[in-house]
Amino acid sequence: MISTWTQIDPIKRRYRFYQISMEPDLFADWRIRLEWGRINAKKRQQQIKIFENESTAMAFLEQQERKRARRGYLLVPG
């Protein structure tokens, strides 16, 4: 599952993205990768979090999505 969010405001010169992905790993854990930065920039920030079960990982993912929405990011369809 991949969730991509953007925040674009040309007046403030703000072109940001935030991507959240969730996937199982080889050790029966769940991994969430958070990636963010400026749209089309070569450098990006990344953070990986490991969870013991899918429900905990999904709860964290939903929490991050709510946080992005509160901060003015818009979900990219698809």
What is this structure, in a nutshell?
The chain contains 1 helix and 5 strands.
Walk me through this protein's architecture.
The protein has a five-stranded antiparallel beta sheet, with helices on one face. 22% of the residues lie in helices and 47% in strands. The protein has one domain (2-75): Nuclear Transport Factor 2, Chain: A, CATH 3.10.450. The longest helix has 17 residues, at 54-70. The chain is an alpha+beta fold and 78 residues long. The chain starts with a strand and ends with a strand. InterPro entries: WGR_dom_sf, WGR_domain, YehF/YfeS-like_WGR.
- Look at the structure and give the CATH class: Alpha Beta
- The CATH architecture comes to Roll
Quaternary class: single chain
| Terminal CA distance | 11 Å
Rg = 14 Å
Mean pLDDT: 96
Which spans have pLDDT < 50 for at least 5 consecutive residues? none
Largest sheet, described in full? 5 strands, antiparallel
- The total count of helices amounts to 1
Structure classification: alpha+beta
Globally, the shape reads elongated
**The CATH topology:** Nuclear Transport Factor 2, Chain: A
The number of E-state strands comes to: 5
Helix content: 10-25%
Strand content: over 45%
Give me the side-by-side strand order of the main sheet. 4-3-2-1-5
Order of helices and strands: EEEEHE
Number of domains: 1
